[in-house]
TrEMBL record:
The keyword Transmembrane helix does not apply. Keywords: Magnesium, Metal-binding. The keyword RNA-binding does not apply. SUPFAM superfamilies: S-adenosyl-L-methionine-dependent methyltransferases. One of its GO terms (molecular function) is metal ion binding. It comes from the Eukaryota. Pfam families: Methyltransf_7. This is Jasmonate O-methyltransferase.
């Protein structure tokens, strides 16, 4: 069984997901009374800039901590690999993956909208890294269009890579209102943007 974590963490959160899959899979297989366990293959995906070296060092000492809860049960063999690359491109062969998982990653766009991609044009978003209350409405619409384009491509690619009957579990930031300026996420990223600007100012760097 092949499982892929798209936009994985570079730390312990990724291993929590791996442990949970092993735990659920073990319960399911043993409840069915199956003595021959299927091996689990985990592919941890993120952009090449992710600190995979740190992740692999953690993996070197990783053991399934839920084993104590499965005394007498047959545990599956599991194999964990890195899969660097953008999830807005093909990552796996056709019909190769049984389960895709992505947690709090798909809000990242594949690129800045082309209309904003330029040294001067980037200031149309008031130096924000997200849609905030100071973002002009036409910029909001550009990011919404980019999201539709990106997410449609993401679903198309994963459809090609999933086996028949495969599953995806996607956790994505959202808001309760259709108003793009409402929601806690805007405030969180607004504060994060201000923090980054403060760091730049402290080191006398220019955003221009």
């Amino acid at each position: 069984m092949v499982v892929a974590d798209l936009g994985c963490s570079s730390g312990q959160n990724t291993l929590h997901f791996v442990s949970e899959v092993i735990n659920i899979f073990t319960k399911h297989q043993n409840n069915l009374g199956q003595s021959d366990m299927v091996d689990l293959q985990f592919f941890l995906n993120d952009l090449p800039g992710n600190d995979f070296n740190h992740l692999f060092r953690i993996l070197n000492t990783f053991t399934f901590k839920g084993a104590s809860n499965h005394k007498g049960d047959i545990l599956p063999a599991y194999h964990i690999y890195g899969a660097p690359g953008s999830y807005y491109t093909r990552l796996f062969p056709p019909q190769a993956v049984h389960l895709f998982h992505s947690s709090l990653s798909l809000h990242w766009r594949s690129q800045v909208p082309e209309q904003l991609n330029g040294k001067q044009k980037s200031y149309l978003n008031e130096e924000n890294i997200y849609i905030t209350k100071t973002t002009p409405l036409h910029v909001v619409k550009l990011f919404q269009e980019q999201f539709i384009k990106d997410f449609s491509l993401f679903l198309k690619l994963r459809h090609e890579e999933l086996v028949d009957g495969g599953r995806m579990v996607l956790t994505i930031y959202g808001r309760k209102s259709e108003d793009p300026y409402s929601g806690d996420v805007n405030d969180i990223f607004g504060l994060l943007g201000k923090s980054l600007q403060s760091l730049v100012a402290e080191h006398n760097f220019s955003l221009k």
